[in-house]
Amino acid sequence: MPYRAPHIASSDITPEPLYLKRRELMALGAAAALTRHAHAAEPSGEVLPGVKPGAFKVDEKPTSWDDVTTYNNFYEFGTGKSDPAEYAGKLTTRPWTVAFDGEIKKPFTMGIEDILKAFPLEERVYRFRCVEAWSMVIPWVGFPLADLIKRMEPTSKAKFVAFETLSNSVQMPGQRRPVLEWPYVEALRMDEAMNPLSLLAVGLYGRVLPNQNGAPIRLVTPWKYGFKSIKSLVKITLTEQQPRTTWSIMASKEYGFYANVNPEVDHPRWSQAKERRIGDFFKRKTLPFNGYGEHVAHLYKGLDPAALY
User: Fold this and answer.
1) Which among 189, 201, 244 is positioned nearest to 226, based on CA atoms?
2) Are residues 195 and 58 in the same domain?
3) 299 dihedral zone (left: phi>0; alpha: psi -120 to 50; beta)
4) Domain span at residue 23?
């Protein structure tokens, strides 16, 4: 027999306006749930608990939060200084894992939450000098890179530390353009990495690191030009041979492996003798090693100063 739908009284039928209202309420509820989830998953800008004052602090006025978070080099989101702040919201930083391999006892991975629990956080106020001759003073929050390297248990062959940024052109629209070879890679000599100044930053100004500043975890080496301080790390590898680095691959005549701040060695297209501190009108003299010579100059004795760029 043919199927017949059951008889439904007109009084049992939901009026159309009420049905549509119900759909609106369901949509609002779903949107609210998504908002709560996103807020929980993306803590950028939230206060970091348990941060203690660090051993390094310059006696200079910190650059404002607004300038630090809106004037950035982060080509994964575009080549303009304002592009990272505009487009980095697409980056998903939770969940996030970092892989550790190479010349270590045993390869492993750690989630960012486990990293935050494993290493006590401190605030360090560092000068930050960009190769383009502008600079900032930034209150970073993080922990010594040396502490993490010790956790990796290096073998006797480990001579360099290689770093790799996330490669994801959906979340990082700048990677859709071949302006650089992706993913971005950087490296340090082992003694540079173990230097007390080398920091893995997870925040600034006491807050969780914003996406445009390299969330959720980045390197900070304050005696080097800013392009060495690689952002949004997903991999750290200990190697025996000197690794390739992005800018030395793309423009070896302009950017070297070491990238130490040196006012006496000019970039091929501009002078490095002076810099413009963001927020200031007048330029100031650039300091050798960005003012950190007493901590790092001994690492480079006997090497050609020009080669250190």
Assistant:
1) 201
2) yes
3) alpha
4) 13-42
